[in-house]
Every structure is written in C-alpha cells, then in structure tokens.
Amino acid sequence: MPTVRTRRTKGKRWAKGGSSSSNPEVKKFRTAARTGFYAGEKGSSALTVSAISHLNEEAVESEDETLGDVRSVGACTSASLMSCSFDGTVFEQVQSKWNSPHASHREACAVLAAISEVVSSSETGQIAETEYFAALMTALENTTDSESLAAIAFLLTLVIEKVPQNILKAKFSLAASLFVDAASKHAESGSSAFHRAVVICIGVLLQAQEPAIWSNSSTLNVFRVLLIYTADSRPKVRKCALEWVVKLIKNPLADSSQPPFHPGCSSLAKFCSQVLEDSGGDTESTPAKHILRLLRDLLGLLPVQSVKTLCESILRLLTLKDVIITTLCMQALHGLFAAAPKAATLSPELCGQLITSLYEYQPHISDVQPCLAWLAVMQSAHVHLSQLDARLCTGHLHRVCGVAYQLLLSEKDLVRQGAAEFLIILLRQAASACIPVMATHLSTAPSGTSTQAHRLFRCFEAGLQYRYHAAWDLTLQVLGVAFEVLGGKLHSVMSKGLVSMCELHGTQNFPYRKQLEAAVAAAVSAMGPQTFLTAVPLRFEEKPVMTEFPRAWLLPVFTNAIKNTNLAFFQSYFLPLAGRLRATAAKLAANQQRLELTLYTTLEIQIWRLLPGFCTEAQDIPSAFGSIARVLGTALLERVDLIPTICSALCHVVQSAKETPALKSKVGGFAKNFMPIFFKLASQGSGGAESDEVPLSEEIRMPILECIRSYASVTDGQLLATFGGQVCQKLVKEDATPHTRHSLMDLAIAMAPHVSPDVVKSFFNVGKAHLPNALDASMQKKAFQLLEVLCSSEGGELFVSGNVSEIQQLLLASQSVTSAGAKRPRLKCIRHISAKVAGVGAKKFLTALLPEVILSTKEVNEKTRNLGHSVLLAMAAATQRITQKAVEDSTEEFLVMMSGGLAGSSHMTSATVNAIAKLVVQFRAHVQSGLLEKLLDMLPSLLMSRHREVVKSTLILVKVLIGVVDKNQLRQHLQPLVSTLLGWSTESQNHFRMKARVVFERLTRKFGYEAVSKYVPPKHVKLITSIRKTTERAQRKRTEKREAFANGASDKRKNKRGDDEDSDTLFSDDDEPMDTGADRESSSRSTARKAWIMEGGADDPLDLMDPSSSRRVLATKPRAPKQQHGRGSEFVMQDGKMVIDDGSNSSEQKPNQLQADIPIDSMEAEETSPWRQKKGTKRRNTDDFDEDEDEMAAVRGGGSGIHRRMPGRDGPAASGGSRGRGGFSARGRGGFSSRGRGGFSSRGRDGGSSGGRGGMSRGRGGTSRGRGSGGGARQSGPASSMLPRKRKKVADSKPHRR
Question: Which end of the chain has fewer CB atoms within 10 angstroms, the N or the C?
Fold first, then answer.
C-alpha cells in the first residue's frame, strides 16, 4: 500500500520575541484557577468544624519549629494586609504579587505581612509611612538572611519616597550608616536586587539633604559608596547607580541658596580620576569604561579644574588606540561640549587646548565611524568655543575646515557626506558668530595681508580643484552656504573663488551645473549683484558683435536670486546695457543677421526680467523710484513684450511701500502717471474698426489688471474716485463697442475693492444693468464678479448691508437667465448675501435659491462643487439665525426644506441626496433621532431607483448614516437595508459591486458577521463570507504588526522607577553574572571589536610612539586598493594628475594591450551590440569568457599559419558551435552564445562568430552574409569562421536561454 505523505506545515508559531514572554495574552486557566473555577460546586461540604479541629490536632502533633516560624510570619493574609496598611498605593506592587509562585515575591509578601502586624500592634497605634520605615530599618539591621534582606530593602524603596523630608534629614546619619553597613557586609553574598534597593535608598537620602550636610565628610563617604556602585560588575546595579548619581548632580539641592556646583562634584571628580588612573592603560579595564559612560553625562557639570584633570586622563586613554575606549572617550568629550557649559566649567582657553589636542587623535579617512565621531566632537567643540570667545574660535576655523576638506577626499561616501554636513553646520553656527571679528581684522589689516578670513575662504576655494571632483556636488553645496553666511561682510575675499566657480560652469560636460548655479544664487543674494558683478563681469561688450556669451547663464540665475538690494544699480548698470544691446540688435536686423539678432534680443529681455528682483524689498525706493518711473512709463507704452515684467516690478514696489506710510504716499503719488497708462493699455483696441490699435492678448492684459488692483491700494481716494467715475460714464454709453464694455468692466472689477462708497453705488448700478443680460454671457459673468467684489470689499460692505433686499430681488430676477459661466461668481454672491439676510422675506429668499445651490453640488467643475457645499452651510447658518431656534430644530427644518428636491428629476434627486449626506456629516452632533429615522425609512426606495446616479448618491448617504446613527436604531432597519442592497438587477450589482461591498464591510464591523448574515439570501452568502475572511485577515495582520512593534519598543524602552518591570527586577533574586577575569577574557575574544593597522610605505614607517599614529589604527578592515583596468588607470592618478607615456616602454607588452590587437570594428561591435553579455549574468558565462580571453591572448596578429583549433573529439571546429533547427543554437566550450534565425550569433572558443539565417558572420579574414537582411551583430574571430559549418552534436553543449 503506497504511503501517503501529508503536507507539513509550520503550525501555530510564536510571534517574534513571544516564546520567552512571562505574561502571555491567553490566561484562560490562570483566570479560572484564580476565580476558584476548579474548586467544585458550592453546597454541602465535608469540611465541618469538628473536622477542622481534628485536622488541627493532627497538625500540631507533627508540627516542627520551622513550620511554626513560617505560620507566625504569614499570619496576616492579603485581606488583613489591606486592612492593616495605611495606603493601598504604597504596597500595591507587593499586593499584586500575593499569589505569585516566585520565591522572592512570596518572601516580600511574608515580610510585609510581618511588618504590618508589628506596626498595627505598636503602642502608638498609628499606621503611617514613618512607622513602616522605622520597622523596616530595624528589620534590616537585625536580619542576616539574603532573601529577607532583598525583600526588606525592596519594601524600603517603596516607603522611603513617602517619608517626610524632615525625618530623612533628621535620621540621615543613622539610616545612611545602616545602609552602608548592610552593603559592606553583604557585598559578595547579597543579591543584585538587594544592592539595587540599597542604591535607591541611599540616593533618596542624599537627595533630601541640604548643602550644609554635604560639607560633612560622612555625607561624602556615603556618596562615595554610591560612586563605587557606578563601576559595579552587575549591570543592573551599575545602571541604577549611574542614574542616581546623574540625578543628584544635575538636580538642584533642597536649599534655595545652593552653590554654583554641587558639593559632591569634587568627590565625583577624584573618584573618576582615580579609577581612570588605576586602569594603567589596560584596554580591558571594565571600571574605566563604566566611568567614561558616567562622565558622558556629568563632565559638563564639574568645576574647571576637575574638568581639566579628567580631560587629561581621557586624552591619555586615547593613546591606547583601542576602538571601544576611543569611542567612549569621544562620547565623553562630546557630552562635555554639547552641554554648553559656562566658563566656570570649561574656559575658552581650555576649550581651545582640547581642540588642538584632538588633532593628534584624528582617525584615518577610510575609517567611517571613528571619522564621524571625531567630526561630531570637533563640531560641538567649535560651536561652543564660538559662544565663549569668538575671537579665539576665529583662529581655529581655518585649520578644522582644512582637515574637513581632506576628509572629502575619502573613498567612503559616508565620510564625505559627514564632512560636508560638518562644514555646513560649522558655517551656520560657529563661523556666523565670528563674522564681526573677521570683518574687523579684514578692515584694519594692511593691503595684501593674509587675514583669518583669507585663510578660511581659501579652504573653501580649494574644493573647486580637480582632486575633489568626486565630491564636487558636496563642495559646491558647502561653498553656497559659505557665500550665504559670509558673503554679506566678507565678500572682498571671495573674488577668486567666484571667478573659479564661474569658469568651472563653462567646462564641457560638467555634471553639477545645478549645484553650481545654486551656489552662485546664494552669493548674489548675500553680497548683492553689484558686488558680484565687480568680481565676475558679464563681458557682453568685449567685441562690437559677439556670437558667444560665456557668462550669459548668469542672467537666469540672477532672476530668482536678486532681492533686498538697490534699485539705482539697475538704472545705472543694466538699463544702459539693455539699451546698447537693443541698439546692436537694430543694426543686426538691418543687416539681416538673424542668428545674432536672436541672441541680442534674448539677452535684452533677460536683463529686463531682473527688474522685479531689484524692486523686491528695495532699499532705495524713496530716492530711486522717481528717476526710474519715467523710464518704466515710456517702456509700457512702447514695448508690449515688457509689459508683464514691468507690471510685476510695480506690484513688488507697491507691496514694499505698504509697510511705511511715508513710502506709501511717495509711491502713490505716481498713480496719476501710471493709472492712465494702465487704462489705455487695458482698453487698447476699443476704438472699433476705424482704430489702428491691436487689442492685447489675455496673457498681457491680466498682468495689467493685476497691477491696477495692486496700485489702487496706494492711490489717493479722490483720484481713484475720479477714475472710477470716468469708467462708469463710459460704461453707460450706448455707442460703446462690446470690446470697450468688456475692458471697462475689467477696470471696474480691478478698482472696486478700494473705491469709496459713492463710487460703489455707481459700480452697483452698472453691474445691475448687465445681470439680466443673457445675450452676452461674458458680460453677465463680469457683472456677477463685480457684485461679488463689492460684497466682499471693505468699502462695499456698508453699501451691501443697506441694500440687501434690493440685491435679493436682483438675484431672484436673474436666476432663470444666468449662464453656465456665471454660476461660480453668482454662488459667491449668494454666500455673501446669505450671511446678511434677515427679516420675514429672508426664508422665502433662501427657499427660492435652494434648488439652484443643490444642483451646483453636482457640477463638473470641482471648485464649483466645493463652493456649492460651502453655500449650503452658509444657508443652514442663515436659517438658524432667521428662525431663532436651537441648532437641532433649525437643522431639521433646513433638511426638510432640502428634502423637496427628492421629488424632482433623477439629477435633482441625486444632488439632493448628496447635499443631505454632506449636511448630516457636518451637523451630526445636532441631528435628531426622529430625522434620522425618516432618512433611514426612505433609503430602500432610493436604492431601488432605476437611475444609477441616484443609487450612487444613496450609497454615499448609507455610509454616512452607518457612521452617524445609533447602533440600536440602525438595527431595526438592517433587514430592509440588506435585502435592498442585494435586490438589484445583475447589471446594477456588477456596477456597484465595490461600493456595496464597502457598505457591507461597515455593517459587519458595526453589527458583527452573525447579525448581518442572517438577512443575506443563500445565493449571496459567499459575498458575506469573503468580507468576513478579508476583515479577519486584515485584523490579524494589524494585530501582529502592533504586537511586533510593541515587542520591539518594549525592548528599547528604558525601565523607569515604579514600573511593573522594575518591580519584577527588584523582586527577582536571580543574581547577575559578575565580570570575572576569565569571563572578561572570553567575552573579549568573542565580542570585542577588532582593530587594524594601516602600514605606510617604505619611506613612511609607522611610529607607535607618535600620538598621530592613531590615524592608522582602523576600526574597520581596510580593503585592498582596486586594480584599475583600462586606459584610465594608466593616464590618471588618484589625485587627478595625468601621466603621459612618452612611448619609451612601448616594446613591453602590457596586459591591457589585448584589445589593441583586435580590429577596431570588432571592438565597436562588442560594445554596441544589443545582444552582448550584460552585467549580472550567471557566473559560468563570465568564467567561459575568461577562458576565451586566455585563448585569444595566445593568438596574435602577424603570425604564420592558420590560428585555429582543428576538429576533434572535444567539440566542433573553430566556429565554436552548431545551430540547431528553428534558429536555436548550441553553446560550445568557448562559452559564447550562438545566434539563430532572428539574428543570434554563434561564437567559438577562438573568438569567431557565425550568423544564422538572416544574420552575418565576421572573422579576422573577412565577412560573409547569409540570406536575409543581415541583422546580426558584428563580432571578431579568426578566418576559419569562414569555413562551412557542419552540424555536429556536442556532448557538453547546452541550449543558451536569454
């Protein structure tokens, strides 16, 4: 009988990290045992009083002394303990472990029960923290058992935080001596839980003491005990001690008159220095590593003398060149600088000395992590030094920048990126504080003297050299930040760098033009265009007529970079240049030199486009604008192509002028000159057929209207009223052409936000006359836009408030004649008027316009739809204001008004349902249950509609109601809702399949699978089952993801004081492994980081006594230098220098001369063939290729005889393979792929190739073509490939698949 193999499955597996969980989620049997589930049924029991007495008599007879002790200790149960203890929250952690099987937990509960019994039976009769503290201290003094000691110490940690501070101060000496004695007696035998508890108690005692107590030697001795624990071999004890030492040193003392430094700082410094000195240069000294971790947090809180001593010890440890020690030392120094201590802790001189010393411990540029750590320390050190003494920091900047630029030459990308980020932060945070010092030195130094600013910027200029070409993108970014930070006041030292950078832009195929242009833009923004062009002139006029402008690329860069500069410079430099370019262009046009004409015209336009930048936040508008205004006005009238640019510049001028009243009046005074020009341009072409004026395009008219709207804000009100009156007079003329009316209406819309109330009335009358005009849809749209501007402007608000009823009648009268294009401005007008309507006719007005607003929510345009929803909300708010009812009642009344749309057409019904859904969501907190009941009742009839748009809108409403309606209320409508959703025709079911599925998912989520499935017909059960499975699967994935995240987060989360996890560790009696010598040796072999030494050349031996030798000690294994292949490795060195071979050694054959012996055309075929071997193919292909290369290397041109392998047993002839039937080919030992009918080629081990039908074969001796178009690739091979091929089955050949 054949055996049947069952499929093996992994089964139910533990989640990651869950197999060792001591608190599983499933607690079925634990809960049952705790609640007495297995105790049996209650009722008559055999446990009577007589039986108990009999059992007691038997127990007394067999009871020994040990059992009696246990019974006496545990006489107080959990219930009696709850009644005995004064505060349930103090011992809550113990009470929660009352039934725990853990021995340490049971011991703590027993001790607490005994202490509670003693406290409750005391003579005082008081039960408070003090009594428990005294009783526990007495028990600690008289107890010698280690388990009891741990339990007592843990209970003390719970009580001592609740003891009043005055008692801790009064009993400090006694309590501290007890803790110290207990710790010394049980230093070896005590558990880690006991020692952690002792550390906490000592920390709480010391935290409560005043500064005067800290001056006593006994207090410092107690603090020294805490310091000794910071180097303890047990990790949890050490961690607890570290936390308490940091808390004591950082937090202020209880007394307000505290000294500048904590009294324990001197003891801390002596202890740390002693431990570091005792290490004696031992790289395996564990206490020294623990102390370095402590100093990382506290070194910045010690006095300057202590800091100096400890820094000397740290620097001596750096000479050990151990990876872990070096990392910890760097972390300690970084903590010192990052804390930003005052001069009393870290003086500027000491900070400078540390910076100088750190250069001796600079790691090698190929060592990634040590380099990044060293850069982080140097960065924080220089930033802090700039805050302490900017003058001293200035002298250190150029050196550290030079070192950082050396790191940019590293082959490691992370090192280069870290160096670039270091330089950027150094410029922004340190160099910016040193600018005044460098500027003073630069201004007072004699001409030609190299100042600190020169030396600093020389480092940044070096990044443009070719040896930094691999990091040019980073150096240009750094250079841009340097221009941004230093360019404002130190621009005189940047001329050379600017010229070099601009010349680099002209290099052919320069890959970082975008970064270079960003750096140039930063320089222009910082130093201004005048200073920049002084260093880098444009050179547009070196010749009378130029065909090349190497620096023309600067003009587009200037366009977005120029701001906050002098407008007068544009008038004095760029305007004459633009005039000369235009004059030259006119000459070129006369000579019909079109190419040069295009160049000069483009340059002139680009120069004019700089004008908006010069007008943005210009510093000399009061003095310069008057002289340039005439030029701008003339250009507006004469140059149509400059109108958008000039209008944009004037808008920037007006925006800057609004900030100052004097400047506003200065710019506004030119309105009498500019506004007529704008009006003329905006109405150009309005003279009719008799006029020669050509109307401007919309692209040019829109900037003019925008400029009018902006300039009207600073124009005098009387002048603006005059202009507005003239516009109104021309609009009411009957002989005005349509173009004139449209242009004048645009002018009225542009001026309307800033006109006076008198002009507002005139504008309103003009718009009123055109609102019912259905023949001219464009004019009607502009009339509504004018009305909307008047309703929203400050000047028109007063007029609208007094004429609301007239505007209402106007909107109602034009309702039936409104064009499609005017819907959006009309809706805006309705929204403004709805906020102001009141009185008896207001509700009638809203009711009349409500259908129009509802239909707007179904418009194609998204903006119109959103506007329609906002108008509905405004009308709902107006309804509440008019009716003066509560929000619930007014909302219901408005929804009832909207429900009239359900009786209309299908389009109206769909829009109404959408609007109702929107309002239900908006007012879901105020919709009454009665209204929701009505909405639920009408859902089935809407869902059974024949129109899909109605059904689609109803499904949206269903989803809204599922989320809004109460669960019990919705349950009554569940059956008709489900049956209706599944009662569609097959066509509708397919159309709304996904939407209905979403509805069912929400119903299942709200009511459950069973409640929904009982109303589902049998033929639709699969749908509900699929939804249930999908939902459960998604829920499982979310749960697993959440659990995995929680497990990962809990592993990283630190244990805080008072957490359950910390209480478990304090309860625990499992001792932690101590760091013995053998363990330390074994662990160092397995987990310690390795270090490598980079040897120098013969002329540069490694001197281990030199402090700078640490640069050659690497934390990562150095890789052997890559062998450069090809011609590039022979002619270009690593530093970018080129080595030219003079040909003296041409007789020697080089390895890479192999390709030189192959015909050039065959090499090109190899490179350009689309079927050549690609990177990433299988290894056997590359191996075969290497074999072919070896064989080809043995064949040289110019030899005698036919260089080919004769046919033999091993395979085919020199052609290297055979072509199979149908164009597929076999692959020979040579490893080259063959080519079939479609143009594949076959290549033998000697390099020859043959083509199939329609292909081409090429050898050394010539070329042969087969039938077809010859689409094969050209490949090289010997002349023997010309021989006729014989079909021969090759044993070791395999079909080659591509």
Answer: N
